Amino acid sequence: MQSIQNPSLLSFLCEPSEQSLAVTNPATDEVIGHIPTQSKAEIEAAIERSHEAQGYWKKRIAKERAAVLKRWFQLIMDNQQDLARIMTLEQGKPLTEAMGEVAYGASFVEWFAEEAKRVYGDVIPAPMSDRRLATIKQPIGVTAAITPWNFPIAMITRKAAPALAAGCSMIAKPANLTPLSAYAVAELAYQAGIPRDLLTLVVNASSSMVGEVFCSHPKIRKLSFTGSTQVGRLLLAQCANDIKRTSMELGGNAPFIVFDDADIDKAVQGAVASKFRNAGQTCVCANRFYVQDSVYETFVDKFVAAVKALKVGNGLDDGVVIGPVIEQKAKESIEHIIAHAKQEGATVACGDTQQSGLFVSPTVLTEVRQDMDIVQQEIFGPVAPIIRFNSDEELIDMANDTIYGLASYFYSRDIGRIWKVAEALEYGMVGVNEGVISTEVAPFGGVKQSGLGREGAKQGIDEFLDVKYLCFGGL
């Protein structure tokens, strides 16, 4: 692969064969490399090795585990440019954005290296004089992860770092569309001193087969999944047989709300950042826009002008803000959503022009109504439907009218309204006067059918720990 300074990052690449998986650049449709796949038997054998590795890893003191993770963090940052280029080539996001994701992914490794040393138990006041009560936290054991294509490095590190910090092992399946970034960042983990059997990556053309193995194998004690709600339901059902612990970061339908007292210029800036990051292909992207009637025209005019200025193209080209969508069926889905919204009465304010390959014009739709299909769909593309509203009460009802509850955003300068709306929104995360809210120091996760559990923050490591109660009697 051209322009990669550290060839060790790609040591996993292989020659094409029936047992390899081809990875394609969505911007050019060129095959950029092949990686070996693993059979069901090989995956099961890897789980057994992971179980063995976890047995001695959990015995290492937290400070030692932290030191290894810190070396991994430093290696990621030392190779930031190479990792970003690999990501742009296989996933399509602009290079600057990919650089940001590498740093974001590394931040979880650094954070959980520090949290490894802060896994505290409790001493509980005893109800009887001859007893002493306490709790300790212990690693769950072997954990599994299934990660998506839209954040191929950050979703690996956000799961693997807390698992390793807690004393668990992890076997992970990156997305078949974007495995190179995950394998490259894992290679740096091995160079940092993390044993290969402790952090193992596997791929197979049949993602469902890998999922079934993860959910059914008795030595896997926890599954962490990021992906669609539909697939999450299936995995939860499969994990139920063994009562496995799960973390589920699933679909979203984020409202972006602009009240009449908002700073409109800042709201436009936040809307563009939230909606069009990664070509709209994130679960926390603004998915539907609610703008109060008295500022509707002003916001739309400024928002459309900002969207028209966004450059679409190959993520390696200068000035590109929006790269390609990930695959052809994604483009077809986005085009269908736009066409159906137009049939239901939406107006195209900008965009909706034919683009070659997997590129999609950033599109703004106005005069959208709450009863349209587009309002209940996760668009996962650069399309912004805008809906009018009048009262705060009407807005809360419309914003919460969804099965999803991941992220939400609103702009207002009235402190009373801010508290009222923030508390009323049925979402796991609320951005107030801010369109980009993800950070390693805050808990990431949703409510309703957007998932279970939290990633990042102090809560993230608890997802990989069991609480054990100790009762000392006869004292």
Mean pLDDT: 97
Structural shape: globular
The neighbouring-strand order within the major sheet is 12-13-14-11-10-15-16
Oligomer: single chain
What does the largest sheet look like? 7 strands, mixed
- The CATH superfamily of the largest domain appears as Aldehyde Dehydrogenase, Chain A, domain 1
Q: Give the count of helical stretches.
A: 14
Kindly identify the CATH topology of the largest domain: Aldehyde Dehydrogenase, Chain A, domain 1
Radius of gyration, CA atoms, in whole angstroms: 23 Å
Pfam family, one: Aldedh
GO molecular function, one term: succinate-semialdehyde dehydrogenase (NAD+) activity
Family: Belongs to the aldehyde dehydrogenase family.
Domain Aldehyde dehydrogenase: 17-469
Please give a structural write-up.
With 475 residues, the chain is an alpha/beta fold. The chain folds into 2 domains: 7-251 and 449-471, Aldehyde Dehydrogenase, Chain A, domain 1; 254-403 and 407-439, Aldehyde Dehydrogenase, Chain A, domain 2. The protein is 39% helix and 20% strand. It has helices spanning 40-57, 62-78, 80-91, 95-115, 154-166, 179-192, 207-216, 229-240, 264-276, 296-308, 328-343, 392-399, 415-424, 457-462; strands at residues 20-24, 31-36, 122-124, 132-139, 142-146, 169-173, 199-201, 220-226, 245-249, 254-258, 286-292, 347-350, 363-368, 383-389, 407-411, 429-432, 451-452, 465-472. The strands form 4 sheets. A 7-stranded mixed beta sheet has the order 12-13-14-11-10-15-16, sandwiched between helices. The longest helix is centred in the first third of the chain and has 21 residues, at 95-115. This is Succinate-semialdehyde dehydrogenase (NADP(+)). Pfam families: Aldedh.
